[in-house]
Amino acid sequence: MRVLIADDEPLARERLRHQLASLPEVEVVGEAENGARALTLAERLRPDVVLLDIRMPGMDGLEAAHHLARLGTPPAVIFTTAYGQHALEAFDLHAVDYLLKPIRGERLAAALAGCSRVNRAQLSALAEAEGLGGARTHLCARRHGDLVMVPVDEVIFFQADQKYARVVYAGGELLLEESLKALHEEFGDRFVRIHRNALVARRALRALVREDGVLKVELEGSDERLEVSRRHAAELRALLRAGG
Amino acid sequence: MERQPPASEMPTTFLPDFCGLRIVFAVVVIGEMLALVLSLAPAIDARRWSDLGLVSLYVQWVALTGTAALCLARGHLARLGDVAAATFAYLLLLAVILGVALAALALVDALGIDPLLPSGWDEGFVWRSLAIGAIAAAVSLRYFYVRHQWQRRVFAESRAHLEALQARIRPHFLFNSLNTVASLTRTRPEVAEATIEDLADLFRSSLADPSEGVPLEVELDLARRYLNIEQLRLGERLNVTWEVDELDSSLAMPALIVQPLLENAVYHGIEPRADGGTLSVRGIREGRDARLVIENPLGGEQGPRLEGNRMALDNIRARLAAFYGRDDLLQTEVDGDRFRAVLRLPAERGRG
Fold first, then answer.
1. Inter-chain Cβ pairs, chain A and chain B, closer than 8 A
2. Measured between alpha carbons, how far is A40 from A200 in angstroms, rounded to an integer?
3. Which residues of A touch B234 (CB under 8 A)?
4. Strand (E) or helix (H) holding B174
5. ipTM over 0.85
6. Which residues pair with A76 in a beta bridge?
7. How far apart are CA B124 and CA B147, in angstroms?
8. Smallest CA–CA separation between A169 and chain B, in Å?
9. For the segment A76-134, what is each residue's pLDDT rounded down to a tens digit?
10. How many Å apart are CA A107 and CA A86, to the nearest integer?
């Protein structure tokens, strides 16, 4: 059984490594210090199980699990946590495996023997119980076979492209298999609809211009000018005035 | 927050301190009101104001002698239970009234000032004095008793409040620390041992009586022990700078104020950052007072976690207010990408 450890504390990782070493037929294939790194390593090393600390900087364990669940062959996930208050009730309720730190050797062995994959429905329920509202910090997609992670804060705009959403960010662009509507629901606090087919980061809004009789918006960080529909023009003007 | 008397000031007996100026003044005021009532009551207008003078003189004589007697008997009264103390004090007052009344009669006779007084004033003078005095003394003692009950309730409430506010170590920190120790026992037992000792110190002080102060030195030492543990957990992600040499290390302050501020700084400012950051503790001497400035980078959090931060800060503010009787000692601000908590520690534990 190939296991990946993800925890931001070096000593917590060290302890797990020691404990796992004493179990037969278990091999630690890698260690990650945050969620994003865990995702990258999981993609590359294809572990059977990921031991995922819930509270990690950058991308936390729950979000990492969300992205893991979208991988081609997702690994099983066992969450680890030092203290979770009411959230652990939700883990029990949705039959998601977790271990409490300091983790007992026999509990670890039992969890590895019986662990299972988590699905998106379970994860959404957990995110809600944790009070996280479920908004991701990163977007995750495959490009030329590689896994690419983009912090949501770096996204300039989303544009609907048939059944995909085109994501344009500071370092390039990628395609997500998600609807613009779902993205708007998730990131509505930071993004604004300017057209049926486009969702723009509020912080990137620069100015409204008229080009060949069509109203368009200029954006920070991108040369593309996106069309603004009449329906959204007034709201956008108000936003620009408030921002300036 | 309301200003409350420090714990040490709650008297055990319901009788107030009759040697104190405030109570003597209260007795004088009560006596004078009684004198006014006595002078206003008779239906003869002519002598009212000259009577008030004499009645006041007499009433104050009784009242102040009674107060002096209670003051002298205070040591004995304090050892008695409420009922025994009340009975003893009441009998003592009756004795004083009787004594003063007899002395007044003798004095009037000796000085021969009968003509100044209304005719027939001395008929049953002693009994009338005793009756009026008995009522006045009973009412006064009852007043002190009710006042004491009220104070005790306020005190108990504030005490319960303070205990509820007692500094708590975050469970998150506790269990992560235990995990750290579990890991260290295998590879570095001596570090594990030292960490257990540090944890023990932290918990002991979180269980200590919150109304008692500690020297700044002890508080800073505890803060260092706490950061030692965090350092083990977070490794190079946590960088700490200390500049507290100029502070007066003997300054008294409430316990576990600095540690939760540092815990906040670590929890909200260092842990959420993948590359960690620098936490700085700076001490500035201001006359006899001290100012501590704790800074950390912003962790970029929002929502429920920040709400937790506000609650932790409110708890610290309330404990500062309970100790110093002031609610302006802890200020926080965001300066660019740094969060700053400024804690002022006055040398005077002022109140009221």
1. 66
2. 28
3. 8-9
4. helix B171-187
5. no
6. A49
7. 34
8. 20
9. 999 999 876 656 776 777 777 889 999 999 999 999 988 777 777 777 777 766 655 55
10. 21
